[in-house]
Amino acid sequence: MGKTEIFKALSDPVRREILTMLKNGKLSAGAIAYKFDMSGATISYHLKTLKKANLVTEEKQKTFVYYHLNQPVLEEAMAWMEELKTQ
Predict the structure, then answer these.
(1) What is the spatial distance between Cα 79 and Cα 84, in angstroms, rounded to a whole number?
(2) Segment-wise mean pLDDT, segments of 10 residues, the chain, 87 residues
């Protein structure tokens, strides 16, 4: 995905918190939703936005969906931002 989708995904504090939660490993959608006081549909929207930006991937195991950080995409975005720094 392009930088536009990545920065849109990163612009929301809820999505940034989800990424922080996933830093420690995969989590189910239910475990992610438990942290927030919002509807399941809203959490699904945030996860969909993160997936569209390719910042997270999903893995289905039986009736559960687990989300993981997509580390290579995060590293690429961070490297691009690092290039913007002036010396």
Answers:
(1) 9
(2) 84 96 94 93 96 95 93 88 79
